[in-house]
Design goal:
Strand order of the largest sheet: 1-4-5-7-8-9-10-11
Number of strands: 11
Largest sheet: 8 strands, antiparallel, barrel
CATH superfamily: Lipid/polyisoprenoid-binding, YceI-like
Number of domains: 1
CATH topology: Lipocalin
Length: 203
């Protein structure tokens, strides 16, 4: 009886002081992507960015303390028209050669609420950097914690590991980041819509 109580107390203490887990967002399956769209009067544009990396520290017992960074390779931005893709990543627009990373970095989550089994909604407040310009942004997100599912995702169940799926959507004004402010707005909308559903894997 005493031994059982001691083991239970030890287990409770271990849970109480469990360290956050770090999730790597460089997807081994290569399917993580961010979608973007610019819905202009003459030429609606939609594309993806696939060069996703970064890491997030997450603890299911303290979701508000989640922190980390998601990074996108600027050269990975792509639209269906190859000529338009060339213009998009050129120095006059995104400037992938001069500013190779698009980055969102945050230190905590606000307004965390349960949204289902091991699922939460929250607001990620942080810094968004594009084309060398950094601005404060607030992004509504959902987080889905999937313990023990990392191996299943890549058809290697013996590998183990956890998953963290982060979803969200937000918009930016391209003028705020020095991307041809006030120019070509009939073909390239001034507001860029972004959405994402990215998966991080624990080691």
């Amino acid at each position: 009886m005493i031994r059982s109580l001691a083991l239970a107390a030890l287990a409770s203490a271990s849970l109480a002081f469990a360290a956050p887990t770090t999730f790597d967002f460089k997807d081994p399956k290569g399917v993580n992507a961010i979608q973007f769209s610019l819905d202009s009067v003459l030429e609606p544009i939609a594309g993806t960015a696939s060069g996703i990396s970064g890491s997030v520290s997450f603890d299911a017992a303290d979701v508000a303390a989640t922190r980390g960074a998601i990074v996108v390779e600027a050269k990975s931005l792509k639209v269906p028209n190859s000529n338009m893709t060339g213009h998009l990543v050129s120095p006059g627009w995104i400037d992938a050669p001069g500013h190779p990373e698009i980055r969102f970095e945050f230190a905590k989550l606000d307004d965390v609420k349960p949204a289902g089994d091991r699922r939460w909604s929250a607001v990620a407040n942080g810094k968004f950097t594009l084309r060398g310009v950094t601005r404060d942004v607030s992004i509504p997100v959902t987080l889905n914690f999937l313990p023990g599912q990392a191996g299943q995702r890549i058809n290697k169940p013996e590998q183990g590991g956890d998953l963290l799926v982060v979803r969200g959507a937000f918009e930016i004004a391209r003028a705020d980041y020095g991307i041809k402010p006030g120019q070509n707005e009939d073909k390239v909308a001034p507001i860029v819509q972004l959405s994402f559903a990215v998966v991080g894997t624990s080691k």
